[in-house]
């Protein structure tokens, strides 16, 4: 499970948004609202006139890093022996399917499931077709 928390692999550096671009302005607005103690519901609301895809993309890497930190607080207690099933309580079991190695939903121990999940998310974040790094200039 240590590979899940290898900061060179799973903790994505914050992207440097080019000053003057729309993403730079969105990032500044998001950081200001998150650090000001405002209502979180208001902080994540799409600003008027902004593209929803750009707004979501600005927050994905930070969200990924925060989830890693939260999971990091419990990972030493969740081993293949102590967490043999990835579940959401007694009624829900999560199974992994990726259409490559796991072609059918497969029950896995929680640490193995989390490792596959974090690797999958990282591939999505690094996919330029999903999260392009170059965007247009900020609207003025």
From TrEMBL:
**Chain positions recorded as Zn(2+) binding sites:** 78, 83
Tell whether Transferase is among the UniProt keywords. Answer: yes
Instruction: Report a single Gene Ontology molecular function.
Output: kinase activity
List membrane-spanning regions: none
Q: Quote the Pfam families the UniProt record gives.
A: Mob1_phocein
Which superkingdom? Answer: Eukaryota
Alphabetical UniProt keywords: Kinase, Metal-binding, Transferase, Zinc
Classification via InterPro entries? MOB_kinase_act_fam, MOB_kinase_act_sf
SUPFAM superfamilies this protein is in?
Mob1/phocein
What's the protein called, per UniProt? MOB3B kinase
User: Which organism is this protein's natural source?
Assistant: Certhia familiaris (Eurasian treecreeper)
